Amino acid sequence: MNPKQLEGAQREVALKGYLVLAGLFVASLVACNLIFRKFFAWEFMGYEFRQSVGLLPYPLTFLVTDLISEIYGKRRANHVVVAGLVASVATLGMVTLAGAVPATDWSPVDNVAFDHVFGQTALAVGASMAAYLLAQSLDVQIFHFWKGLTKGKHLWLRNNLSTIPSQVIDTATVLALLCAVGEISWTQFGVLFLNGVAFKSLVALVDTPFVYAGVGLMRRRLGLEEGQEVAF
């Protein structure tokens, strides 16, 4: 199906929607990289669920890329993935610069506290970015593979069959790299991997109604047919 050329008010709506989704994507990704060194544990029916707090906002990035892929197409989704990489590298540079500047004796956050939270960020973020690029790029590719195979139908299928495999690869890659650079112990790999995959897969299933709601809203506002994308 040919993309729909937009003009006037519809073009403005499409552009604003794209910018909002891109902003959510970048904000979620940067937040993950800033907070991931804090780990938490939940007790549930005798099972202890252990994971990084960076896990909490990360599934939102896959939800956003699926929405962008469905409405704006593969090229726009890949643009957002690249923008997230640029934002993460820029954030790393800013944090590194902030850490290099000595704190005053009256600073509420001293050098030790700052380094304790943000120290060794370069290795960890590098590992995270390697996993991120692999997983997000794979998510976009798989999403459009299923979209083409189903001729734009069965949104739930491509939403889940692109997100869940990508999340598995992302979790395995980032944990392996974090273990390799010494951020976490290899003894934690198994439980963190299983917990991460279980949580992300569950979120992927739960967010399907939100994908349908977002896609349905944009289709009505932009006058799109099922499976049709916009061009602007």
What does the secondary structure layout of this molecule look like, with pairings?
Elements: E1 4-5, H1 8-35, E2 39-44, E3 47-52, H2 59-72, H3 74-100, H4 111-118, H5 121-149, H6 155-180, H7 189-206, H8 208-222, E4 230-231
Parallel strand pairs: 1-4
Antiparallel strand pairs: 2-3
Helix pairs in contact: 1-2, 1-3, 2-3, 2-5, 2-6, 2-8, 3-5, 5-6, 6-7
Quick tags:
232 residues, mainly alpha, two-stranded parallel ribbon, two-stranded antiparallel ribbon, 71% helix, 7% strand, globular
Brief characterization of the structure:
With 232 residues, the chain is mainly alpha-helical. The protein is built from eight helices and four strands.
Word description of this protein:
The protein is mainly α and 232 residues long. It is built from eight helices and four strands, in the order βαββαααααααβ. The protein has helices spanning 8-35, 59-72, 74-100, 111-118, 121-149, 155-180, 189-206, 208-222, and strands at residues 4-5, 39-44, 47-52, 230-231. It has a two-stranded parallel sheet with strand order 1-4. A hairpin with a 2-residue loop joins β2 (39-44) and β3 (47-52). α1 (8-35) packs antiparallel against α2 (59-72), α2 (59-72) runs parallel beside α8 and α6 (155-180) packs antiparallel against α7 (189-206). The longest helix has 29 residues, at 121-149. It is globular. 31% of the residues are buried.
Task: Give the strand order, joined by hyphens, for the main sheet.
Answer: 1-4
Count of DSSP strands: 4
Low-confidence stretches: none
- Please give the alpha-carbon distance between the first and last residues: 16 Å
Shape: globular
Strand content: 5-15%
Order of helices and strands: EHEEHHHHHHHE
Mean pLDDT: 86
- Largest sheet at a glance? 2 strands, parallel
Share of residues in helices: over 70%
Query: Rg from C-alpha positions?
Result: 19 Å
Number of helices: 8
Return the structural class: mainly alpha
